[in-house]
Design a protein that fits this description.
The complex is a heterodimer.
Chain A lengths: L1 E5 L17 H7 L2 E12 L14 E5 L2 E3 L1 E6 L5 E2 L22 H14 L3 E8 L8 H14 L5 E7 L3 E8 L2 H9 L9 H13 L4 E7 L11 H11 L3 E6 L6 H14 L3 E4 L6 H13 L1 E5 L10 E7 L8 E3 L3 E2 L21
Parallel strand pairs in A: 7-8, 7-10, 10-11, 11-12
Antiparallel strand pairs in A: 1-2, 2-13, 2-15, 3-4, 3-14, 5-6, 5-13, 8-9, 14-16
Helix pairs in contact in A: 3-4, 5-6, 6-7
Chain B lengths: L48 E4 L3 H8 L7 H15 L1 E2 L6 E2 L1 H20 L4 E4 L2 H11 L1 E3 L10 E3 L2 H9 L4 H8 L5 E4 L3 E4 L4 H5 L4 H7 L1 H11 L3 H9 L3 H4 L3 H7 L5 E2 L2 E2 L8 H8 L6 H10 L4 H11 L2 H7 L2 H12 L17 H9 L14 H8 L6 H8 L7 H11 L8 H13 L9 H9 L1 H4 L4 H5 L5 H15 L4 H23 L8 H10 L7 H20 L6 H9 L6 H20 L5 H10 L3 H6 L1 H11 L11 H7 L7 H8 L3 H5 L4 H10 L1 H15 L7 H4 L26 E3 L10 E3 L5 H9 L17 H9 L8 H22 L2 H11 L5 H12 L3 H5 L4 H14 L8 H13 L6 H8 L1 E3 L5 E5 L16 H4 L4 H11 L7 H15 L8 H16 L5 H4 L7
Antiparallel strand pairs in B: 1-8, 2-3, 4-7, 5-6, 9-10, 11-12, 13-14
Helix pairs in contact in B: 2-9, 9-12, 12-15, 13-17, 15-18, 17-21, 19-20, 19-23, 26-28, 27-28, 27-29, 27-39, 28-29, 29-38, 29-39, 30-31, 31-39, 32-34, 41-42, 42-52, 43-44, 43-47, 43-48, 43-51, 44-45, 44-47, 51-52, 51-53, 52-53
Classes of the chains: A alpha+beta, B mainly alpha.
Chain lengths: ~350, ~1050
Amino acid sequence: MTKRISLLTAVVSILGLGWTVKTIAQQAQFQVSVDLVQLNVAVTDNKGNYVTGLKPSDFVISEDGIPEKLAFFAEGNGAARSLIDAPPPDPRTIEASAQAEPATPASATNATDSLSAAVVGSNVYILFDTSNYMYRGFVFAQDAIADFVRSLEKADKVAFYSYSRDLSRAAVLTPDRGEVVRGVRTTVAGDDAALYNSLLLTVKDASQTMGRKVVVVFSNGPDNSSVVPPEDVAELAQSSGIPIYMISTREARLEPVSTAVFERMTAATGGKAYFSKNWRDERKAFESIREDLAHLYSLSYYPKSNSNHGWRSISVKLTGDRFKGCHVRTRNGYRPQPSHFSVGGEAAGTSDSGK
Amino acid sequence: MKAVVVLPASRLFAFLCLVSCLGFAGAGDTPKPQAPSSATSLQAGSPQSVTVPGPLRSFLRMAGISQKASEEEVVPLLARNVFLLGYEGPSSRVRPTEFLILLSRYVQQARELSVMAGPEAVLRASSCDEARPLLQVLGYRTRSDCGQPGSYLETSDPQRAFITVDSGFPLPELERALQGGAPFKYEFRSTRVPILFTENDWTGGRNLLDALLRDSSLSRLYWAFAQMDPETQAALRQSPGLKRLQAYAPELDFYGSRLSIRAGHIDLPGGPGAEGTWRDLVGINPQNYGEFVDRLMAKDSGWLAAYFDALSRVNHVQQVHFTESRRLKPFYEALRHQDSPPADAARSVFRPAPGLLLLLTRMQWEPNGEPYIPGNLEVWKRVLRQKAYSDIARDWGKHAHSWNNSEQLLEALVGISRVDTEAGPLQAYLLLSELDAERTSKHRLSPETVALMASRFNQLGDQYLIFSEFPDLDDTSITAFINVATHLDSLNNHYVRGNAIGMFDANVGLWQILARQGQIPKSELNSSWQKVVKQYAAVANSTGVFDAGRNSLRELLIAANGKPDANQDTLIYLLAGPRQTTPEGQTMHQEVAARIRSVLDAQRLVSLDTLIQLGDNLHQVAQVKDRTPGLLLLAGELREFEMPQPIFKKSEREEWGAGVYNNKHTDLEMQTDISKVIKSPASDQQLADARGQLASFLRDTLVGLNYAYYEPPGAQILHHNPLFVRSHDFSGDTVVGMQKVCWRAPQLFGAGSPAGGGAHLVGSLADLPYVLAQAEQDFITPENVQALIWGAVVPGIMTSAVVPRWWSVSRNELHAVSLYQQAGEQLLASSAGNEEVRNKALDILGDRVAPRILDHVRQSLRSGRSDDAMAYLTPADTFYLAAEFQKRFPQQGDALGAPGRDLATLGQQHPEDMTWQRLSRDFGVPHPVLAQSYALELLNLPPFPAFMGYSSRFLAESWDSNNLYWARLADEKDYSPVMLNGLVPELTHRMIEKIFATDLEDWPALLRAERETGEEFRRGKIAPLVAAAGPADK
């Protein structure tokens, strides 16, 4: 994920519902930002079993072909380890006005602490399709989601959203599973389906929370009212380092557009798509996601100087012959966010200052 | 046009043909309703009631009724939803929709559970065995390990289970009890809700709830009665009686809410003086009100009722004009037209003929009482004969040659008002009338200009909104615009034409913004307009398009900034608003500028600076050679844009995105590479061609500035779909059949087509604020579960928050707006104990509120409950009440209390800040459909009824309370007026989140949401958003 960790000297930003009077221009003037790219990486052997116990030195990361140096490393729900003393300032990505004090070791240390906190724990955002397309399987899907919520490990926080034409935040991020299940059980059937609109908002919400996060979508697929295309959602998720998992049924296979999006969007973000026989038969998918969450490696690096302002491809490989046949799954790239700060539509992961 | 409703759910399959954009989200234990309803019977103390089985909250969910509805509203709203949403199919094969099937199943299930709950009305379960019967009804079962902590419920009967969860049964609590937790105890108490009259009146002894669920016609009659005031209800119950009126339930539903029967006499539009004409038209003496109403509804398939209703809705002045004896009957004859009688007036889902109400509301009159005619009569004779118009219009045109007075034209306009169109001669007439109304008699449009405008109305009508906003633009300016538009229209190359129209429209849009903000001096409006527009007069190719755009921009900057050249930041600075001198003004100004920049960044548009520098240097070979390195760097920026990472293959796009996906414009831009020409320029022509390649980039950036300026609150597409601006199709190439409408207001295409690359706009930039709001509205998340936020109203409300800016509003004005609202409230309080004042106040309010509401206000005031009366009145009502009372009865200022005295003092000290014209301009809203103008104005209209199509915007445009109320809140908190530039979009966004409506005319839901937002603001919940700037120093 591209994360702007703000080393603020004088300004505490005030984040609100999308509008703040503190001028963004002023804020930017005082801001020193450093890009950190965070990857959630699943490693499986040729039988699909998770490979555990890997060390930082087992991974080779490159961005646009440029070798990168790992800055942080964590396995599963373990704490992140810093592999460097301080984040290296990148002249291209660091912006400081004349008024801003230079980045000091102290502030760098604070940033390191923040980064450690950022990669601990998992936040799971569940998005449930309540549109007409789910009408027949609505109650079974609810049962399935309730099962999934209960089965998530205690350390995780969970949010539950539903959507039809609009998004409904039925349970905001909470460690209380009962609260989430209540949210699941109180969803009501809707009408039109705006999956990609709602997924965009969900990814945005997720990107604004600290820690590792994933989005799990329960949907039968078709979208008949979104105004944003899946490409934009996928790019935001990639740039925010948020894997998307899609849980669906074979009914969705009847609609090739959704099938294509589900498979490709999940793959691009480092997640997976599952198509079970019906909503009562999703246990395998749940298990797989839980396993993923428990076994993901968190790898972070500060990108080296790169003149590419557009899409940057990421490659993660394992070193050594012993890993032959192993499969690495993670996002395949990201797009650096604009240097200006947006207000109403701030790009994900760019507004951590002051939080 | 976009459909209007958002409906409750999957059960609403059937309604998809009628409605499409409501947003039902769900749940929650919302507080009991405090505010009024559009449906309340208002029959205080009605002893009759009906039992709604189970908790009311669950019933409301299943019936698609707002949780904020009061108990009095429940049965009327149920009746409304049953007839509107409960049936589908042609009349010969009507069948219940999924909505009605599920609602009926719920009622059945709730009755079963009520029996199970027993006299205590409590459902209990303390063990798995005890829970079994309950679970059976609910459609769930326990797993084999019931009683264990890890045990959960699962679906056994999906049909019942769906009802259980959809109605909000507390399943998690029951589940916990079965895991060994505390015994389950759930109060399952039925509710008695009031009804109109008695069950026997409606059903002859059956259960009213069941009867309504089974009988669409009865439901509609019930709903229609609920719209009337109690005295009228009682009178019609007496005569002609419910049974007889049931045959005319649709007519009563659409046209009955303005019926008013007092002491056995029906109020007639035009008063007693019109009684004879109404007797002739209806064929019954109005003194016999029962027979009169019966026949009124039946006559001409409801058209006479529609006419009666429209006349009843307009204000007193308009009513007097239209009910003159020389007009009332002939105009009706014109409407019904013997030769081609219209289809039924009450058989469709929405009321037909919105044009009739609009004409009656907005008609302009000469001082002598004659109809006003823009241009002259001859012009309109020709207009009606235009081939482009409907048969009905041309039919009137055929007879027009012998016309010799304006009455005949007006009669024809009434006749064609029933034609359902957005761009007919009536619309042309109304627009040109509005346009001329703001001009002095010496500066009215010439007949030639009117003729020219009318002849191009079909194509350019939406563009004319700018001329009604700026009446200073004279005949020469208007003609120049039309000539240039005609020229651009004639360009054969689609690509060149699209870029030319887009850039022209964008330049005009920027002029409009700067002129509206007062940054172009009034004295220079015409000259600057003409200079901006005329640059395009000879455009023939892409190079010409670029040069025209560049030169047009230069003229614009001279007009607004005094200098021909400026960088992008300067232009953004200008668009953000006039220069500010106070700290809070500067802060807010920077904030607005930052928002504009953020959109440009997100759209990844090439900087204006880059384009201008490149363009200005690509003129002479020698010039290029001198500056090659720098120009190459700039040229490189053109190639920085990348398409989003593709999800679909090309072949898939062609198959799945056919007819939607079309990014030819962007594709061509991505192929553009002018570096070769810069490296080795061979001729001036090559450089000119290279300049031409910049045209599409310049178009995008200028269009992007327009988009960014009108960014709706909560916008997401603008920030996440980098193709949105680029995809704007100005030539109509991407949609079949749109080529002819490229100057019209844009339409949104591509929603709900995942392989289509995202939604985009097709058309011009006219009406852009509204269409952007329409595109972005679904990103606003309703606060309440199952909240109905209807798509026809929200974009209008958003537009009213985005277009107005408050850079030049004084503190005195802000305070005056607040005082007027307070004075109106004080007047109501005073009138509670003073019959004379009360009657005066009610007389004033009669122009703004329906008889049912007026009756409630009257009853509340009579019984000393002014707070209760206030609950039914909007901020605009109280504002208007005080202003009008002050005007009509200056000697009775005491009735306005302390706020009235403060107003008087303020008026003496700062008379220039207190004029109605100024307050209307600074706190009004745009009315592009109602008043054919983006000029800000307080129109003082009652909420309009729901229509379909373009006219669905009437209701939102007649809602002018928001900005008045937000201004009052800002005044209370002692904020500087400039803070409204940030506060208004934010508060409006919050208000929209809070809307929880039931039907399409549920304006009380707007009032409720507005007040809730205000309370939140007063409690400081929204204050942190503006606390950084804080209340300004005085």
